[in-house]
């Protein structure tokens, strides 16, 4: 492919270019001096660009300085990034209106005005491309992001000077701007080399008073890029980084850096690729209108990893490790690229000057353990629906199961039939939505068994037949029932962990020819907490199924087993060629897996269900991350050998 | 009797001769659902293995009656207190199914251990395994892990 | 309790929302708004402002707890002891002798303490003063039955969401933002001033690292004592840090 022809634009003509773009109906967002830094803001013309300004950057330090010349783009990246424009810090996702028992959910549309980004650097364009992978190239499309992305015109700038904290050359993202721009400028003495990549860009060049660039100008451009590449203030050895980091989850450096880290989240907020967000229902009192909004979140916050009171990353060391392993390792598994573009923002804007390049090289150089192999990225088949907008569904029936647990039978609103192990997000206006596993389904209904422990589940458990709620889904992986064909199959459930196994059990019991030897071991808190008792008895009476139940607490009237579920397993054969589906509290699953280890059952024969904090369920919000996985799309059902390097590891 | 003894994990490491010596001090006990097998406070004289059925182990709590803490099923043992000097039962064992038990008198068993140290080592090793497992399972039970 | 009543005024500030609030809840006792006597009975939600500073307040808060289904304490005084807790660092008797002509008329505890030091509380709403939107959120959450949407995160998160340029990094100022509970909307940094910590320490407040950094760039130990010992200086994390730098 021949490179697109380059043009030369006189310095004074930049204003003309910006005016043309504005004239085409674009608003301009570009760098401008605001108090103490160069930020990105709406501008009208060249005058507002940081002409003659530069910056001095060091870990935890940023200062503006006057240049000796009047360069327009003679500075490195500042505290803002284009993320603010494409993925705003706060944004409504869904509008919810309640009218009696009727609920309407409608997608909040972005309707973005055409916007031109002026001065996008190579690292920043790479960052935009990385966020595209999250929001438009996964199993779902985030329509708001996609709309803004469509509406933007990218005027990129090649860096001919490197900043003190830059390391794009190490990350392979710069300094030459990669594909994805409309126009790319290289600022040289007296003007710009201009390259167009798109038709929109080429059309702009045609309307400018720009001649073809001379060879000397192209040579100067390349020399500028070369000198920039060679004067990068930072360097990072990225060789085998993902495996190295996950092989060193207990490296002493994590504790050491945690003494300095403030867990303030600044690094994640200035990072142009960090995409985590939180979702909240915003309403005033019992108002009929609720806005479901998202806002930037950070893995350095406690709420990020909290579900019903359990904090999965309590220590700062856990959180720092989460951020670094995600950025430099998990990204590769999740999106087939490092999450770092080498812009250096996280170093400058860390209030106490923690330098990621230094932390990473410390782990590499201070007595590291061998690297491990990380899972490959998954291939997704995109789904068209907006995954964040629930569909209103009617409650057909409410079956009380135990004093605090009910099964909601809900009319099916989705075309896709839920599979055993998958989950739906159930939602109520002004309260929010929560992931609930599917406990059964039929042609025109889906069942969810839930326990009213949290506020949202309590409100859901109080629903009455005829009332409405919101449903979105189904999401996630399923129990691989077909893999268990012709093998003895053992299901081990603890507490409400029986609910996702129930729909599997229903299918297994209905197909005795394929599944002639199914055992279910179920541990409940007490006799009163046993779920689906009639079904348990019915399954047990089938020749193909054997059901054993045990309780932790009992009265004298209880004549069944008493003791933890591991007691049941200790007395039973655990065949090596069997398949094992396990669901319950993590502590219980861990103990069960120990027993299977002792029995010598291969890890590839065991499947477990993992629960983490989930908000979007579509792989966007980042909250349910579990090492290199998203529980919402890679899980909740995992094969044990795929997660054994993090399963039971504190801080994940 | 030897057939029945073979099914007990406690004795799984013993050879034929050793099992015969155990059989000589063993007896069979049959109880009906609800029957008391041993009663709290009573002298702990025999260790028992469940050959068939199920037994619950319960502690009396004043005002609340018997509170079962665990059940013992086929192949498992109860009453290891009988191996301790001058022991009393710390709990009541009650059949929750029609149950057949194999009874080994504690004193006779200890005598056997003395006479045949290897037998003693093998059985005590399994006893320790059982106690350790039971203790571990009790911790897990105490965690009340299904509450949340 | 012991306070300036400013947090109660925040509720009165909710002009438009006050009407909706009046429809949703029945306000039975509100000293700043009405002089009606305290009714007897039990309450669904009680908001308490101020710290426990006198023996009478200690009695009263126990009573309030007993008659309230949900107890939400509001403001820096109620959640950390407030600015009046600066006396916790000094000799209380001496203060009384210096300030009052007849100290014996004054009945006061040696320390000013948060409500949670004496009775269990259901939610602590931070701030000096509290933020109006957050107050409405707590009341709304209580009415509709959701978890209050008030994250325990650093002020930095609010700065960044607003696009405010960091005053620590770009201006070299001392700022308690990284260790302070969000909720003010990054008010001071938005006006180019470092955070004073009015909302008190956030969870995981690594005050030690922040102080080390500041000392490393030329601040004195006395500066650190002053920085951490202000509005919420008696909150354990801040108290611990300021004591570390005492002469």
From TrEMBL, chain A:
Name by which UniProt lists this protein: Anaerobic sulfite reductase subunit B
The UniProt record lists the keyword Glycoprotein: no
Residue span(s) of domain 4Fe-4S ferredoxin-type: 250-282, 331-359
Alphabetical keyword list: Iron, Iron-sulfur, Metal-binding
CDD domains: sulfite_reductase_like
Residue span, FAD-binding FR-type domain: 388-481
Pfam family membership, one: DHODB_Fe-S_bind
Domain of life: Bacteria
InterPro entries named among the record's database cross-references: 4Fe4S_Fe-S-bd, 4Fe4S_Fe_S_CS, Dihydroorotate_DH_Fe-S-bd, FAD-bd_FR_type, FNR_nucleotide-bd, Helical_ferredxn, OxRdtase_FAD/NAD-bd, Riboflavin_synthase-like_b-brl
Single GO molecular function: iron-sulfur cluster binding
Coiled-coil spans in chain: none
TrEMBL record, chain B:
Gene3D superfamilies registered for this protein in UniProt: Jelly Rolls
Gene Ontology MF annotations: DNA-binding transcription factor activity
Transmembrane segments: none
CC terms in the record's Gene Ontology section: cytosol
Pfam families recorded: cNMP_binding
Domain Cyclic nucleotide-binding: 10-130
Full protein name: Transcriptional activator FtrB
Protein's organism: Enhygromyxa salina
TrEMBL record, chain C:
EC number: 1.12.1.2
Gene3D superfamilies for this protein: NADH:ubiquinone oxidoreductase-like, 20kDa subunit
GO MF entries: DNA binding; hydrogen dehydrogenase activity; iron-sulfur cluster binding
Pfam families tied to this protein: Oxidored_q6 (PF01058)
Entry keyword annotation includes Oxidoreductase: yes
Domain of life from the UniProt record: Bacteria
Record keywords, A-Z: Homeobox, Oxidoreductase
Keyword Oxidoreductase part of the UniProt annotation: yes
InterPro entries for this protein: Hydrogenase_assoc-protein (IPR051349), NADH_UbQ_OxRdtase-like_20kDa (IPR006137), NiFe_Hase_small_N_sf (IPR037024)
Domain (NADH:ubiquinone oxidoreductase-like 20kDa subunit): residue spans on this chain: 4-141
The protein's name: NAD-reducing hydrogenase HoxS subunit delta
Organism: Enhygromyxa salina
């Amino acid at each position: 492919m021949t490179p697109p022809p380059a043009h030369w634009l006189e310095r004074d003509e930049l204003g003309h270019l910006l005016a043309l773009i504005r004239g085409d109906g674009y608003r301009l967002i570009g760098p401008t001096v605001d108090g103490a830094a160069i930020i990105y803001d709406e501008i009208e013309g060249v005058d507002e660009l940081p002409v003659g300004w530069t910056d001095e950057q060091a870990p935890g330090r940023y200062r503006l300085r006057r240049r000796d010349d009047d360069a327009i783009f003679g500075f490195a990246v500042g505290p803002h990034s284009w993320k603010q424009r494409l993925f705003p810090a706060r944004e409504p996702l869904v509008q919810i209106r309640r009218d009696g028992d009727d609920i309407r959910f409608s997608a909040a549309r972005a309707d973005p005005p055409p916007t031109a980004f002026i001065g996008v650097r190579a690292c920043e364009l790479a960052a935009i491309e990385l966020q595209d992978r999250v929001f438009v190239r996964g199993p779902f499309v985030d329509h708001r992001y996609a709309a803004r992305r469509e509406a933007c015109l990218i005027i990129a700038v090649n860096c001919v000077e490197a900043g003190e904290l830059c390391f794009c050359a190490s990350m392979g993202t710069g300094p030459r701007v990669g594909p994805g721009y409309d126009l790319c400028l290289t600022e040289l003495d007296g003007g710009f080399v201009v390259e167009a990549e798109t038709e929109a860009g080429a059309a702009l060049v045609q309307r400018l008073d720009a001649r073809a660039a001379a060879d000397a100008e192209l040579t100067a451009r390349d020399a500028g890029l070369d000198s920039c590449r060679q004067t990068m203030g930072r360097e990072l050895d990225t060789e085998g980084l993902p495996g190295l980091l996950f092989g060193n989850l207990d490296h002493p450096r994590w504790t050491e850096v945690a003494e300095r880290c403030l867990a303030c989240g600044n690094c994640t907020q200035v990072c142009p690729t960090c995409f985590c967000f939180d979702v909240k229902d915003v309403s005033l009192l019992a108002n009929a209108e609720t806005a479901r909004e998202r806002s930037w979140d950070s893995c350095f916050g406690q709420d990020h990893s909290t579900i019903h009171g359990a904090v999965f990353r309590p220590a700062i060391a856990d959180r720092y490790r989460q951020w670094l392993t995600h950025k430099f390792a998990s990204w590769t598994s999740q999106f087939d690229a490092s999450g770092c573009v080498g812009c250096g923002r996280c170093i400058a804007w860390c209030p106490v000057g923690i330098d990621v390049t230094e932390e990473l090289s410390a782990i590499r150089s201070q007595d590291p353990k061998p690297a491990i192999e990380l899972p490959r990225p998954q291939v997704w088949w995109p789904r068209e629906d907006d995954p964040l907008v629930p569909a209103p569904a009617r409650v057909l029936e409410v079956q009380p199961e135990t004093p605090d647990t009910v099964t909601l039978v809900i009319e099916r609103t989705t075309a896709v039939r839920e599979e055993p192990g998958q989950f739906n997000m159930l939602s109520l206006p002004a309260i929010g939505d929560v992931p609930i596993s599917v406990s059964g389904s039929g042609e025109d209904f889906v069942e969810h068994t839930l326990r009213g422990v949290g506020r949202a589940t309590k409100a859901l458990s109080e629903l009455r037949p005829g009332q409405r709620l919101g449903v979105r889904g189904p999401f996630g992986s399923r129990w691989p029932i077909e893999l268990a064909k012709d093998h003895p199959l053992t299901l081990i459930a603890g507490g409400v962990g029986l609910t996702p196994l129930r729909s599997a059990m229903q299918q297994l019991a209905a197909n005795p020819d394929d599944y002639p030897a199914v055992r279910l071991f179920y541990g409940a808190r007490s006799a009163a907490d046993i779920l689906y008792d009639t079904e348990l008895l019915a399954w047990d009476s089938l020749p193909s199924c054997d059901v054993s139940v045990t309780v932790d607490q009992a009265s004298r009237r209880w004549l069944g087993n008493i003791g933890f579920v591991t007691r049941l397993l200790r007395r039973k054969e655990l065949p090596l060629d069997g398949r094992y589906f396990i669901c319950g509290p993590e502590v219980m699953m861990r103990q069960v897996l120990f027993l299977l280890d002792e029995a010598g059952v291969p890890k590839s024969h065991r499947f477990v269900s993992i629960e983490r904090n989930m908000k979007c369920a579509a792989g966007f919000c980042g909250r349910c991350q579990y090492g290199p996985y998203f529980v919402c799309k890679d899980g909740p059902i995992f094969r044990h050998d795929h997660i054994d390097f993090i399963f039971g590891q504190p801080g994940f | 009797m030897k057939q029945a003894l073979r099914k007990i994990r406690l004795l799984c490491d013993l050879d034929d001769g050793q099992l015969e010596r155990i059989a000589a001090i063993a007896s069979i006990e049959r109880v009906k659902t609800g029957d008391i097998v041993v009663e709290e406070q009573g002298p702990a004289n025999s260790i028992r293995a469940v050959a068939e059925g199920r037994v619950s182990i319960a502690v009396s709590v004043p005002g609340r009656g018997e509170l079962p803490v665990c059940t013992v099923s086929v192949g498992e043992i109860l009453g290891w207190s009988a191996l301790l000097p001058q022991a009393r039962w710390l709990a009541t064992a009650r059949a929750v199914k029609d149950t057949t038990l194999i009874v080994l008198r504690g004193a006779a068993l200890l005598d056997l251990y003395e006479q045949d140290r290897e037998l003693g080592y093998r059985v005590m090793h399994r006893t320790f395994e059982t106690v350790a497992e039971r203790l571990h399972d009790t911790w897990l039970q105490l965690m009340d892990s299904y509450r949340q | 309790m012991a306070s300036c009543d400013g947090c109660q005024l925040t509720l009165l500030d909710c002009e438009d929302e006050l009407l909706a609030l009046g429809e949703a809840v029945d306000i039975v006792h509100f000293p700043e708004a009405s002089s009606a006597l305290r009714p007897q009975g039990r309450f669904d939600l009680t908001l308490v402002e101020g710290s426990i500073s006198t023996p009478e307040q200690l009695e009263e808060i126990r009573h309030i707890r007993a008659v309230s289904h949900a107890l939400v304490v509001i403001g820096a005084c109620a959640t950390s002891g407030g600015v009046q807790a600066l006396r916790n660092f000094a000799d209380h008797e001496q203060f009384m002798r210096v300030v009052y002509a007849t100290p014996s008329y004054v009945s006061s505890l040696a320390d000013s303490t948060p409500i949670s030091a004496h009775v269990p509380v259901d939610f602590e709403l931070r701030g000096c003063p509290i933020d109006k939107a957050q107050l409405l959120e707590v009341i709304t959450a209580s009415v509709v039955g959701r978890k209050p949407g008030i994250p325990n995160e650093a002020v930095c998160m609010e700065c960044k969401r607003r696009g405010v340029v960091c005053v620590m990094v770009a201006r070299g100022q001392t700022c308690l933002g990284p260790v302070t509970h969000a909720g003010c909307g990054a008010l001071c940094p938005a006006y180019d001033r470092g955070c004073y910590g009015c909302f008190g320490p956030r969870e995981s407040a690594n005050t030690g690292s922040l102080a080390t950094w500041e000392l490393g760039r030329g601040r004195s130990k006395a500066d650190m004592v002053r920085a951490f010992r202000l509005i919420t200086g008696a909150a354990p994390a801040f108290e611990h840090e300021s004591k570390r730098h005492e002469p």
